[in-house]
């Protein structure tokens, strides 16, 4: 082996080491940027567990606590929605609603959920006050509806929600839910 041949091999090895070093640095930079994106991006999922407990209905007598729990479950399912919780909210409304009213309730929910998924927003309802009309099986929940884009609040509005129930088989089922407009 002569000096020129050895020198060329050393230079080629140095070029390969330089290219490899550049690729390693580029991969580390890309990994750091991806990690930064993951840490700065928020995936907000709001799941509110059901507040209905055993023993709230006894021998066909529906009590105030049961009606309130059902009303809050319905409100949370309808208005605490993000693109990741659409199926959860739909299943809660399916469970709470009566067979005759289920289709109309789910159509309204699906319209709302489609809009939320397309705009990639999250809505969260904060209840403040609950009013009852047991004779008409109605509950009005007064609260604030916040709309969020990732973790930034975009809108905040006062909202009154009317929840109607229908007696069925010794209990009550969700008959309708919607925004109460003041006339």
Question: Could you explain the architecture of this structure?
Answer:
The protein is built from four helices and six strands. The chain is of the alpha+beta class and 183 residues long. It has two domains: 1-41; 57-179, Nuclear Transport Factor 2, Chain: A, CATH 3.10.450. The chain has a four-stranded antiparallel β-sheet, covered by helices on one side. Strands 1-2 form a two-stranded antiparallel sheet. Helix 2 (64-79) packs antiparallel against helix 3 (86-96) and helix 3 runs antiparallel to helix 4. The N and C termini lie far apart (99 Å).
In short:
The chain has 183 residues and is of the alpha+beta class. The protein has four helices and six strands. The protein has two domains: 1-41; 57-179, Roll (Nuclear Transport Factor 2, Chain: A), CATH 3.10.450.230.
Which class of the largest domain in CATH terms? Answer: Alpha Beta
* Helical proportion, percent range: 40-55%
**What's the CATH topology name of the largest domain?**
Nuclear Transport Factor 2, Chain: A
Strand content: 25-35%
Overall pLDDT level: 85
- Tell me the domain tally: 2
Query: What's the story with the biggest beta sheet?
Result: 4 strands, antiparallel
Low-pLDDT runs: 54-58
Distance between the termini: 99 Å
Number of helices: 4
Radius of gyration: 28 Å
Judged by helices, strands and strand pairing, the structural class is alpha+beta
Query: Any guess at the CATH architecture of the largest domain?
Result: Roll
Could you tell me the number of beta strands? Answer: 6
Shape: rod-shaped
CATH superfamily of the largest domain: VirB8 protein
For this entry, what is the oligomeric state of its chains? single chain
Protein name: Conjugal transfer protein TraE
Keywords: Membrane, Plasmid, Transmembrane, Transmembrane helix
Transmembrane segments: 20-39
């Amino acid at each position: 082996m002569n000096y020129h041949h050895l020198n060329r091999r050393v230079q080629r090895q140095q070029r390969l080491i330089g290219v490899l070093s550049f690729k390693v640095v580029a991969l580390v930079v890309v990994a750091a940027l991806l990690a930064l994106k993951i840490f700065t991006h928020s995936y907000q999922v709001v799941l509110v567990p059901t507040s209905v407990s055993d023993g709230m209905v006894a021998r066909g007598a529906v009590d105030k606590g049961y009606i309130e729990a059902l009303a809050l479950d319905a409100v949370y399912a309808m208005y605490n929605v993000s693109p990741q919780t659409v199926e959860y909210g739909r299943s809660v409304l399916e469970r709470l609603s009566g067979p005759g009213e289920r289709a109309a309730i789910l159509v309204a929910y699906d319209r709302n959920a489609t809009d939320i998924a397309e705009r990639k927003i999250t809505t969260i309802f904060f209840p403040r006050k609950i009013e009852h009309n047991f004779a008409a099986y109605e509950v009005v929940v007064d609260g604030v509806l916040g709309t969020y884009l990732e973790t930034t609040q975009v809108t905040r509005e006062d909202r009154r929600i009317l929840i109607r129930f229908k007696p069925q088989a010794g209990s009550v089922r969700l008959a309708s839910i919607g925004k109460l407009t003041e006339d």
